[in-house]
Amino acid sequence: MEESPLGAPRKYYKICDSVDIEVAIRPRDFKVTDRLAIDCPTYLRLEEEMRRLTGEINRATGVAEKAAEAEKLKARAEALLSCAEYDGESWNCGNCRGIASLKVAVSEVIIQVSKGDVASGLSRLSSLINQLKP
Question: Could you list the residue range(s) of the whole structural domain that residue 74 is in?
Answer without folding.
Answer: 2-132
